# Entry
Amino acid sequence: MVVKAFRKWTIKIIVGVFTSLLVISITSAKPQTSPFKVLGFSTTPANMADGGHRSFAKEANAWFPTVAAANGFIYENTTNWGDLNATKLANYKVIMFLDAFPWDAGQRTAFQNYMTNGGGFIGYHVSAFNNSIDPANWDWYTKTFLAMGQFVSNTWPPSGPLLLVEDTTHPAMKGLGASFKSPDNEFYSWQNDLRKNPDMKVLASIDKSAYPVGTQGVFTWSGTGYVPVIWTNTKYKMVYSNIGHNRADDVGVSTSFTNASFAKFVLNTIKWEAGVTTEVEQGKTISVVTESPKQELLVKTVGNDLEISLSSHEQMNATLCNALGITVASARSLNGIARIEYDKLKQGIYFIRVKNAKTVISQKICLENNTIK
# Structure
């Protein structure tokens, strides 16, 4: 796919060939022929005792469909853990455990095989819970895959401390900076020190400056010490996030995904695990969701408008979404050109999505310092 940018503003494109017009050629070694699929497993409210966990799962299942299209995937949710089988999982690039995990031996085996064969996974919060009173009885999962061992203690009530990003180069953490403020959350401490396990890489931990954390269940630096929050097992395409308990009960609504940094981390992780490049950089390529790999998306600025068209001049619908996947503007093409006013938009990351009966293309742009990247 080729994106051509014509400008009234000063236009900077990171990947490009500079002529009288700025042109960027964005290609993919393996172009996506259709949006990839993500499956979230959650538990029915009747079977989930903790109101905070119910609220987080409900928020997640409402939020993911709103950001999926702009980020090149289709989201589905199930409360049927019987779907955790080889035939079903073969349809999904990434699966998620939303504050739950399987208990059936056959389902556990299917999950382990899925991960061993290159599947992607994100686990949230209580999906790792395991202690002597309520053991998970799943040694591969708790001792090898997640590797944290048993739950030791928790903070209370949910709070949002500063998190230290321990690997700013990891695809899941890209663009988050050296630290970010967590959404309110109940944090866990664990039996095992993940830093001593060569297979594990901690991506974020509670920053030392944030202690003490909590007022009833309290973590202190001198007592609890180092607490990892987000980590990955380098032998798999997986990430675990202890974030996933935003509310103490069912009063109010969980708001974890309204935290822009957390939302970015989640979308980064999904794309990384699915094999989709998320940044356009010098010498890099970006995967583009399109059913017509030879199709060109043409974008130019005319006055205060983005003029969006396809090289085939076909009619289409164009949508502009922010980084959280929320639609901020949309237009239907007239004579093959869709026009979206952009001069009143805030600076930041946006996604242009063009769709008609034959083509779906998603493209990232950045509005920064009066510059379109």
Q: What stands out?
A: The CA atoms of residues 134 and 151 lie 10 Å apart. Confidence is low (pLDDT under 50) at residues 1-33, 278-293. The chain is about 15% helix and 30% strand.
